[in-house]
Amino acid sequence: MDQQQQSSSDPPSPALGKPRLKRRCQKQRPALARFIFADHRYVFLGTSTVALAGMWFSSRPRSSLSFMAPFFFLELVMYYLLVAWLIFSGVALLTKLGHWGTYSEVSPFAKPRLKKVERCFSYLVWVVALILFVDRAVMGFFAVTSHAIAAESMPDDSLSAAIYMLYEGRALFATGIMTTVELAIFGTAIAFVLALLLVFLRLMKIDRPDNDLVRFGKVIGSGFARFYSAVVRGTPMMVQALIIYNTGFAVLRGSGMGVTQINGLWSTFVAGLVTVSLNSTAYMMEVLRGGIESVDIGQTEAARSLGLSQWQAMRKVVFPQGIRYAIPGLSNELVINIKDSSVLSVIGVVELMFESRSVAGIYYRNIEVYMVAAVFYLILTMIATWLLNKLSQRMDARELSQSSDSTMVAATVKDAK
After folding, report:
1. What's the CATH fold of domain 168-400?
2. How far is CA 273 from CA 56, 159, 227, in A?
3. What is the pLDDT of residues 63-98, one digit of tens each?
C-alpha cells in the first residue's frame, strides 16, 4: 500500500514527461507556427495537385509584366523541382498502396526525420507554385487590364472586352451598385419592422378574458397575415413590381397630377423599394413565426402561470428567444434582396442589372457585360454573408454570457410586474 502511494506521488519519469512538455510547447506556439511544424495527412496528394498546377502555369506564355522573364534558368530549376516532387510523392504513394496496413511501421517515408524532409519539400513546392501563379495569372491579368484600359476601341478577346467595358462604364456600374445596396438594406430594414407587426397578428390566439371586439380583431388580424403571406409568396416579384408601380402611377394620375409631378413623387426607385419591402415582409414573417414556434412551449406556460397575459408572454418571454433562432433566416433575406433587386429593372429602376443592360446596349457585347454583373453580385453577396456571419457569431457569444432560460423568464416576469 505504501509502495503504491509512493509510486503515485512520485514525479513522472522523463520518458513520460518529455512528450507532455513537447505538446505543451506546441500549444503555446502561434497558429501559423503550429501549422508549419505539423504533419499533414494528405501532403503527397495535395502538394502533387499544386505541383501540377505550377507546371501548367509555367507552360503558359509570359505577359509583358512577367518578372520571371529575365530568369529563365531559375524558372527551369523551379519546373524540375516540381517534377522531382511528383516523382518523390509517386514513389511514396506506391509504397503506401503496397503496404496499406503496415505503412507507418515498415515504410521509410513514415519515419520522423523523413517526414520533416517531406514537409519542408512540400512547402518549397507550394512557394514555387505560388510564384508561378503570380507571374502568369496575376501579372498576366494586370497586363491585360492595362492594355484594355489604354485601348481606343473594343478589344477582340472576351476578357479584354469585359475590362474595357467595365472601365468605360464605371460610372454606370457604380450607380447601379449603390442603388442595389440601398434597395437591399433599406428594403430589408423596412420589411423587418413590418414582419414584426404581422407575426404578432399571425400568432395571436383567442384568450379566455378577451371580449368580443378583441376576439374579432384577433381573427381578422390573423386571417389578414395568412392571406398576405399566401398572396405575396405565391406570386413572382417581377409581377408584383409591375402591379405596384402601375397602380401607384394610375392612382396619382387619377388625382389630377401631371407626369412630371408623378415622377417626382412616385419614382421607380420608390416603387422598387416598396416592392422589395412588401415582398420580403412575407418571407421574414414566416421566418419569425418558425423561430417563435421553435421555442419550448413550457416557456409560454411558465410565463402565463406567473401572471403574464398572452401579449406579455409573447412580447417579453417568447419573442426574445425566438428571434435568436430566426436570425440566420432573417439575415439571409438581405442576401436574397441583393440578388432579387435585379428584377426591378423591368420597371426602370436604375440598379445594377439595369445599368448592365445599358452598357450591353452601347457596346453590343452581352455575355461579357453580364459576366461582369454576375461578379459584382457575387462580391456583394459574399460581403453581406461575411458581415452577417460576424454578427451571428457576436450574438452567439452574447447568448453564452447570458443566464439560463428559466432565470430569464423569472427576471422578465419580475420586470413585467
Report:
1. MetI-like fold (1.10.3720)
2. 49, 34, 22
3. 889 999 889 999 999 999 999 999 999 988 888 888
